[in-house]
Write a structure and sequence with these properties.
Blueprint (H helix, E strand, L loop, with lengths): L7 E4 L10 E5 L2 H12 L4 E3 L6 E7 L3 H9 L8 E8 L3 H7 L2 H8 L9 H21 L13 E6 L2 E6 L8 H4 L11 H5 L6 E2 L6 E2 L7 E4 L8 E5 L5 E7 L4 E7 L4 E6 L1 H7 L5 E3 L3 E3 L4 E4 L8 E5 L4 E10 L2 E7 L6 E5 L1
Parallel strand pairs: 4-5
Antiparallel strand pairs: 1-2, 2-7, 3-5, 4-6, 6-7, 8-12, 9-12, 10-11, 12-13, 13-14, 15-19, 16-19, 17-18, 19-20, 20-21
Helix pairs in contact: 1-5, 3-5
Length: about 350
């Protein structure tokens, strides 16, 4: 379920507008800023001197339409700055690594420069693939076909942030449409977010993750709030957990979406529950609530409450857990055998 409200109109495809694909103008400030932030912080390579008029291009180094756009924009070098975001292609890693105009040209010719740190380039490419996923996610209110493919142009105009999926025919008009801004060359946050491999630990107690909030929770392409949003999850739906990102509070969920990549959700409490160390000492018999008690998902005072039981309610006891000076009763809470924990 997408979280965002409809904020733009899907423009009709008229003769002379685009060769293929679609155009979207995002005019409301918050979604427009989110879309622009997504591409600004992708790992892009600059092409052209006019940094005050940036146009972001998501592309594949092996896409004929992307190569055609590259060839057709050679006359725009002093009028706009194309910031190419490599998402796919055998030489895409060389552009991620070098981030310069020469690597863009070389990659299109199949002769990208030698990549010294291949693993780092692959992490950067995976980050950019998350950016493409995020574009499709953010465009769901207008089109759910996930067809914002290669090349896709994103740039600021006087009316909002414009997205063009396809090759514009009238490229000569592009510089006049791009809204000038301060001529800065910021280092995208994606560079730092993909610079090191993740330190993952096994999810000992949490095979699947869900949430109990009223609104959908957003997943990101990397374990950081700066990483692009790529999908969301409704209340009580479950997704498989593939690891916990150190002590950061981020949870990695199993392959997600069409590209089957990992996604990340920030839930410090459940991330801690996933690695909680405890041993259940088997103990049978019946357990009966003496007062009103809360049954928690794990033997920890911060664990989510599964049920609240009244005095006299009885359940089968399965075992006892001792942690940090507290004793917890493990009971069979549901008919499917799901356990719950009550502090004694």
């Amino acid at each position: 379920m997408a979280m965002m409200m409809t904020v733009a109109a899907l423009l009709p495809l008229r003769s002379g507008a685009v060769d293929r694909g679609k155009q979207v103008m995002v005019s409301q400030s918050e979604p427009a800023a989110r879309l622009l932030d997504t591409v600004e912080n992708a790992i892009w390579a600059a092409d052209g001197q006019a940094a005050d008029k940036p146009v972001y291009v998501l592309y594949s180094t092996e896409c004929a339409w992307s190569k055609r756009l590259y060839d057709d924009t050679r006359g725009l070098a002093g009028k706009v700055q194309l910031r190419w975001i490599p998402v796919a292609g055998g030489t895409a890693g060389s552009v991620v690594a070098a981030r310069d105009a020469a690597s863009i040209a070389g990659a299109f010719g199949g002769r990208g420069p030698r990549v010294v740190d291949v693993a780092a380039a692959q992490r950067g490419l995976a980050y950019n693939q998350g950016v493409m996923d995020s574009i499709n996610y953010q465009m769901r209110p207008y089109d759910r076909s996930s067809t914002f493919a290669f090349p896709t142009l994103v740039y600021r105009t006087s009316k909002g942030v414009k997205l063009v999926a396809g090759n514009p025919r009238n490229l000569a008009a592009l510089p006049g449409e791009v809204l000038p801004q301060p001529a800065t060359m910021p280092t995208p946050s994606g560079v730092a977010l993909s610079s090191h491999p993740l330190s993952l630990v096994n999810s000992r107690n949490l095979p699947k993750w869900s949430h109990r909030q009223a609104r959908p929770v957003v997943f990101h392409a990397a374990p950081s709030p700066q990483a692009p949003p790529i999908d969301d999850l409704d209340k009580d739906l479950l997704v498989p957990v593939s690891g916990i990102v150190g002590t950061t509070g981020w949870i990695e969920v199993a392959p997600w979406g069409p590209g089957k990549r990992k996604a990340y959700v920030h839930d410090p409490v459940m991330a801690r529950m996933a690695t909680l160390e405890f041993r259940v000492r088997p103990q049978g018999g019946q357990w009966q609530a003496r007062d009103t008690v809360q049954v928690r998902e794990f033997p920890d005072a911060e664990a989510p409450v599964l049920e609240t039981l009244g005095p006299g309610e009885r359940y089968q006891r399965r075992g006892v857990v001792e942690r940090g000076g507290d004793v917890w009763e493990q009971i069979v809470l549901y008919a499917d055998g799901t356990p719950g924990y009550v502090r004694r």
